[in-house]
Design goal:
There is one protein chain. Helices cover 60% and strands 3% of the residues. With 153 residues, it is mostly helical. The chain has a two-stranded antiparallel sheet with strand order 1-2. Helix 2 crosses helix 5. The radius of gyration is 19 Å and the shape is globular.
Length: 153
């Protein structure tokens, strides 16, 4: 250990498990695992569910928009969209008259599947945020946004 260069920690920490990044990753992995398990019942993956949610709020998004909104690459978003289209949950034209972006829309089956799965996902979020005092939720959300913005520079 002594031959390793010592770099001061950004805050007092006994080991890596006390670092903010580690704790964020642990919470993210727990959320992802719970969502994966819940969404299996609806034959959806987390990225597929996320796409359906975004399209419900903003019909007509492009592949690039959906990739950004679901935190995946454009190539991964194409795979996700292909699966959703094959399942009849979205519609996407083969060509477009204006520009290159192909707008994506929920089908009635997609809207129905989303609404069925949403309750399970929201129950997970309720369980997660129920573990902290309600008065701290606004501050937590602001802190998480501030950390993301600090790294987006």
């Amino acid at each position: 250990m002594e031959d390793r260069a010592r770099v001061p920690a950004p805050h007092p920490a006994e080991d890596v498990t006390e670092h903010v990044g580690y704790r964020l990753k642990r919470a993210s992995a727990a959320l992802r695992g719970a969502m994966d398990k819940a969404l299996r019942e609806y034959d959806l993956t987390v990225p597929q569910y996320s796409c359906l949610e975004l399209l419900d709020e903003q019909p007509g998004l492009s592949n690039a928009d959906l990739a950004r909104g679901t935190f995946v690459t454009r190539q991964s978003a194409n795979v996700v969209l292909r699966g959703l289209k094959d399942a009849g949950l979205i519609s996407r034209p083969a060509t477009t008259e204006h520009g290159r972006a192909l707008p994506v829309h929920l089908t009635p089956a997609g809207r129905q599947r989303l609404h069925a799965a949403r309750g399970a996902v929201y129950a997970i979020e309720e369980r997660m945020i129920g573990s902290i005092p309600a008065r701290r939720l606004t501050a937590l959300l602001a802190d998480l946004d501030a950390m993301a913005e600090a790294l987006d520079e």
